[in-house]
Design a protein that fits this description.
By secondary structure, the chain is α/β, with parallel strands linked by helices. It contains 17 helices and 16 strands. Helices cover 35% and strands 12% of the residues.
């Protein structure tokens, strides 16, 4: 375990929040419990980067699944036609036909949402936008698939309660599952589908009574068709609630009180976050580069008039548009095989092919500029700390508890359902090297999602990122992307110093190399500081790798909290200007 008080990582207690001081005290107590008077950082066999050891705690942050565009951006002439198209791709909120389920009610029967009153008076923020921003059938199946793959992983490599015999084991007997979400219907439904894939099992009829995946409510599974139509399962085959065991309906999806919620800093402290973002936007470098993108923004607005004149958070930027909404046009249509020029005056005309090529040429620059904007945001230590420090601290507290648990106790399995911008902030905060090292392939080589986000998680095994390296910060989290933080108990005889547990960080089934800030002097994004001057976790050398220890993670958090110290005591208050929250994708 790394030394918290080494000169290269000196921490002034005068600037620590009380929560971080408590954390350091617990880490110290943890070391004493291991009967060690010294604390040194060591290396372990590189196999621990993938699957070695026993996983004793899991914390997963995922983006929601495939969805319809957040906003309609086209001409009013085609609003009805495009709306009808997206209605055909999403589960209806209500059904008048007894042969069809209200899909949301069916999921909520097994994984009930609990929305705190402080969150939009207990109602979903986006419920009145249907169909725009809603999770699609495809998105629901994506999330079930991700849940199923994680189930395979932790059945194979995870903690097993010592009191439970093999064949009768239930996932909930090994793991204490908690599910949290932001207050959007698409994020709540996404984590419900994830849970469906993770724990939704039933017994099939037959001699072997082999367990098979259950799609909660039975009728939720749909066969996706290019035309937006879907076949329905025979109602006689639908799984009824009585087919589920009691423990399979016991996981609530919690949208917590804003005061204690760790997922949405923009809702929790709107004025503080508004001020931080405005400070970034006002910087000369941001103004210059964003101004250079105004030509592209103006061209986009001619084709997508809904981009121009729309309200912008934070008072707007020189380019004058919402780039998340602009990127939506390309991502959502590509995901559904819809021409970029569909539902426009050009559809079916002699100019259609030329316009399609022009729009296609804009796709990468739009996503590239969006990635750059958020890179500038998350280069601000206070901004990234405000987003990442609360969930990181919540994780660390639980990780420390795990180290003293008995073999027959359930381990924490925590799922957070959020947005692309949330995942990006966490990756910058933990120091994902492909984001913070400054390396950039750029241009047409920009890393883009392929739709097979978790396809390489074969039978629960994962691979090392060095085998499939991502070389550009111009990367954007695909639908259903997931970051998993795994607390791994080292095998007997593999411990080093007082360290019995390490932390493995996985992005979409591949372990990450990390270059985190371990001192307030470290750059969040390496520009003047060479990567070789920083401690790197997850790199392999001669079959060995340095893994992230609990004290390393505590140090990362303390540096984050020192960065945000001047802002932590500010009252969140109510901001009376334009809506300041970031509407993540």
């Amino acid at each position: 375990m790394a030394v918290l008080t080494s000169s290269s990582r000196a921490v002034s207690s005068n600037h620590l929040t009380q929560r971080t001081i408590s954390c350091c005290q617990v880490i110290s107590s943890y070391c004493k419990r291991r009967h060690s008077t010294t604390s040194t950082t060591g290396s372990v066999d590189s196999s621990y980067l993938q699957n070695e050891g026993t996983i004793e705690g899991v914390w997963i942050f995922h983006r929601h699944g495939d969805r319809a565009p957040n906003r309609y951006l086209g001409s009013p002439t085609y609003l009805a036609a495009e709306s009808a198209h997206w209605y055909s791709r999403i589960p209806p909120v209500e059904r008048g036909d007894c042969h069809h389920h209200d899909h949301y009610a069916a999921l909520s029967q097994h994984f009930p949402p609990n929305i705190h009153k402080s969150q939009n008076d207990g109602e979903y923020t986006d419920i009145n936008r249907e169909p725009f921003g809603f999770l699609t059938y495809n998105g629901m199946d994506q999330m079930r698939s991700v849940g199923k793959r994680f189930r395979q992983r932790y059945d194979r490599y995870g903690h097993h309660n010592s009191k439970i015999n093999g064949e009768k084991r239930s996932f909930l007997e090994d793991w204490d599952i908690q599910a949290y979400s932001t207050n959007y219907l698409r994020t709540v439904t996404s984590v419900q589908c994830f849970l469906d894939g993770l724990i939704g099992y039933h017994n099939s009829v037959g001699e072997n009574r082999q367990k098979q995946l259950l799609h909660a409510g039975g009728g939720l599974r749909r066969y996706y068709k290019d035309a937006g139509k879907h076949e329905h399962m025979d109602p006689s085959t639908l799984t009824l609630s009585e087919d589920l065991s009691d423990d399979q309906s016991s996981v609530q999806v919690q949208v917590r009180d804003k005061k204690i919620d760790t997922l949405n800093a923009f809702d929790k402290r709107p004025k503080m976050m508004n001020d931080l973002v405005k400070n970034v936007i006002s910087m000369e470098g941001f103004q210059r580069v964003d101004s250079d993108a105004k030509g592209l923004a103006d061209e986009l607005s001619e084709f997508l008039p809904g981009l121009s004149g729309a309200p912008q958070a934070f008072g707007g930027t020189p380019s004058g548009i919402n780039w998340i909404h602009a990127n939506d046009h390309f991502v959502c249509r590509r995901a559904h095989g819809i021409p970029l020029s569909a539902f426009s005056d050009y559809e079916g005309t002699s100019d259609e092919e030329e316009v399609e090529r022009l729009l296609e040429s804009w796709a990468t620059p739009v996503c590239s500029h969006l990635s750059w904007r958020f890179r500038e945001w998350y280069a601000c230590p206070k901004l990234v700390a405000a987003i990442a420090a609360p969930p990181f601290q919540e994780m660390l507290d639980q990780m420390i508890d795990v180290t003293s648990m008995g073999a027959d106790e359930r381990r924490p399995f925590v799922v957070y359902s959020a947005h692309d911008v949330t995942l990006l902030a966490l990756l910058y905060a933990i120091g994902a090297d492909f984001l913070v090292s400054g390396e950039d392939c750029g241009g047409r080589d920009m890393v883009e999602g392929t739709g097979g986000t978790h396809s390489h998680m074969v039978e629960g095994s994962i691979s090392n990122s060095t085998q499939h390296s991502m070389t550009s910060w111009r990367w954007w989290p695909d639908y259903s992307s997931a970051i998993a933080f795994e607390l791994v108990r080292l095998n007997k005889g593999h411990e080093y110093g007082d360290t019995t547990h390490t932390i493995r960080v996985i992005l979409n089934g591949r372990t990450l190399c990390l270059l985190p800030r371990l001192s307030t002097d470290d750059e969040g994004i390496l520009k003047d500081q060479p990567p070789c001057s920083r401690q790197r976790f997850g790199a392999v050398s001669e079959g060995q790798s340095q893994m992230l220890s609990l004290s390393d993670f505590a140090q990362i958090i303390s540096v984050l909290e020192q960065s945000s110290y001047a802002s932590t005591n500010e009252d969140g208050g109510v901001y009376n200007g334009t809506k300041v929250g970031v509407e993540g994708g």
